[in-house]
Amino acid sequence: MVEMGAEEAILTPGKTYPHGARRSLENWSRVALNVLLPLVGVLFALLVGAVLLLILRANPLAAYAALLRGAAGTRFGITQTLVKATPLLLVGLGICIAFRANVINIGGEGQIIAGALMATWWPLTFHAWPGWLLIPATLIVGFLAGAAWGFIPGILKARLNVNEILSTIMLNAIALQLMNLLLQGPLMDPAGVAARTFLAQSAQLPPAVWLPRLVPRTLLHAGAILALVLAVAVYIFLWRTTIGYDIRAVGLNPDAARYAGIAVPTFQALSLTLAGGFAGLAGVVEVIGVQHRLLEGLTSGYGFTGIVAALLGSLHPIGLIPASILFGGLLVGADTMQRAVQVPSALIDAILGLVVLFVSGSALWSRRWAARRSVRSQKSGEAEA
Amino acid sequence: MKGVFSLSVISGILNTMIGLATPFLYAALGEVFAQTSGVVNLGVDGIMLLGAFAAFYAALTTGSLWLGLLAAALVGLVLGLLMSVVSVTLKAEQGVSGIGLYMFGLGMSSLLFKVLVGTVKTVQGFRPLPVPLLADIPVVGPILFRNNVLVYGAFLLVPAVWWVLQKTTLGLKIKAVGQNPAAADSVGISVNGIRYLSVCIGATLAGIAGASLSISLLNLFQDNLTAGQGFIAVALVYFGAWSPVGVLGGALLFSVVNSIQLWMQVLGVRIHSSVAVMLPYVLTIAALTVTINRMRQPAALNKPFERGES
Q1: Nearest of B31, B87, B69, B20 to residue B234 by alpha carbon
Q2: Which candidate from A180, A344, A355 shows the least CB-CB separation from B111?
């Protein structure tokens, strides 16, 4: 497991637990380490990106300045950053839950598609429903569709010990083809068929299901608030409920959890199902909040970028909020950078990959530090006794 | 449907199968090395993408296919070193670091393609090289012995990998490090050294797997050329229970399904292309559920080695 979280709260027998000022100081330094190490990872990745820019004969300072300007320089840029941060936060919440149970969910893309498909079909079918009923219903069925897509690898892992990384990646490809199939068939926009353009997109959804916009003349929608509320809810779920405790226990030490009578496979399947549900919600808000229809390329790689955000947020729902905004900004700024210095925005995709490599590599130091600290506190505990 | 399964179609399907199996074989046999030593390299797809681009670009600019192959192998080697540093020395969670490597390869190959090439171009890939005498055997000859050098190489790699792993000291060390790193360490084997070597051999082969797509099978490059074939290759290692022969069986099974799918579309069998494209992925999941020989999984798979930990 990537050991990053505030996890040592689970008591180990025979270990001394110092109280008071030093304890809280150590908590703070651990939080600082959890924040700093990933940021150093990002900085490293951006440095490598700067070298790449130099090789491509672009000015790295101008490129990154354009990136920053695009992401945060204007009112519209800021709202766009938040629009992109919303699905990242939702996907990332699911990734956090899965990671906490020691399950890696690479299936975000497929689960987003599952949620988006449902969020398209449902309002088109029940278009007469009033908004106060249609919006919650769409959110719920979209969550369930994503959850179902996450349940498949979950149950396969629980029952047949199928590697979830591989099964979720295959399910991504299957979901993508399923969407292509439906967009070229039953879900294709009748207007496109009539006009003989045959664009691979659905009809526009009834306005009743459109999420309210938070800032006029921007795309920022109420899904952003929903995502924030859910981040807090996931925090409470993981740290203040029995199921959440069991999920974290499974992730921290599966053998100990099994010994304590926790049904490890069940909780791993559950965590993948929940992860799928949150990714499904990301698909829903993209459809009913931003696009108001289903179209190709809707996922925009959020399923993968959500993993990066989750890692950077130390797999903590609250840490995920700034991390999602950071990466939302990176995605928005990438387009501005592409226009300003003529370097394809694919550079940002490569940088995101490096962030994952560096952050996963940096876990060693946080682990070493935790080990050294536990030895030290044990020694001082013995001295006190 | 009449005549669809005539002899010529069947031999066509089998011939396509041999070609399609080539990238799977290179990538999956390479992954056998890495996993036998205890490291899961999930970044195979990213390495394949960058390898495919390197081979394509070198062939396009120099006109030499062999330089292309060399470029792909070198790119694979460098990425293998990167993966080793992160996963072996820094002991990262291998599932995560592999995904990072994949994302890097995907983004980087797309970036380089857009900057250096820009539009879809094709290269003249390796030409078929009929094996004297054998190529003239009816039916079997055209299927097996009229392929190009990369295809022969992939199939010869199967016994070669088997031999290295089963019959050499190096193979013994790789297996020891994957089964019981602490014991291997205690008899003086450098656990991390062997893992570096295994991951790098695997990554080099993954680079060549990419080349087998871009300068042998498809003879072009485009964004996300592999479409997840590297991940299927990793799945094949589980399916083949970490044995080169098992991997060969899996690669052939996959390729024959893919080949039938392609031929159905060529022959105009009424099947939606999305459904057809979906088939290999569904098959992969099915194959993962029936992996029987799980007992053969290297005991230290996915576990970084730390001296003093049991």
Answers
A1: B31
A2: A344
